[in-house]
Amino acid sequence: MTSNRLDPITFEVVKNALDSLVDEMAITVMRTAYSGVVKEALDYSTAFCGADGQVIAQGLTIMLHLGSFPVAVQSVLTKYDGRINPGDVFVLNDPYTSGGIHLPDVFIIKPVFAEDALQGFVGAVAHQADIGGLVPGSNSTESTEIYQEGLRIPTSKLYAEGVPSEAVFDLIATNVRLPIQVRGDMRSQLAACEIGERALLALIDRYGAAELNRHCEALLDYSELRARQEISALPDGKYEFEDYIDADNIKEGPLKIVVSLEIAGDEITVDLEGSSPQVPAGINSPLPFTHAAIYGAI
Question: What are the tens digits of pLDDT across the range 37-54?
């Protein structure tokens, strides 16, 4: 393990510094957001990801958002391979092309550069008060296709090398019922990313990029070790459960969720075989959020 070669006191300092980084991002969103769903209901999350998209630290807000960050960041890395520059900021919400959760949850992701290299990403995902679609608030189980749910934003540059894309800002504002609140909440996410970038650069100034990356790798090792220890303490075996989601507007009737969970040593395997298939209604869970829900529950 990488952590065996690190000073344990420095490791603890870095770990807590990264926790503080994402929590400060979360507090920034709470204090500057416009809409009640973000400012008061706290329906948002913040995260710091490594250069490969793995979540290193997550803010104390909505846990279930965070498991989808790696897919969202991966969409940036894939689509803009070789074209990610200092000052860029990315925006996305589409579950089918960009690792989104559902359309009201808009990701804003900023790459952080230091020592002439990409060092990671800071990001915030927030549930917008409206993103268009059939009904105000953009949450309708009566939708029969995603085009009725609102504006789909593929992974796009909101800023290119520090210059805002007015076309993207205007496109979003024109397609939502509450443009002032939506633009305000998005700017609160941008402010959080600025705060996160500033804190990360301060850590790099203090320890150097290579040393900080070693600590991030050690944090992942440490997290895996702790998780495997907890799993090992559980009795081996196979556990099953099923439940239903009301679906009065779907001809197939109530939707079944079936889960089979197998514990073997320090590993857990989760199988959703037997659950209802995708239905023509705004109630399906895309794969990034399905993964996130499983991670969160475990």
Answer: 999 999 999 999 999 999
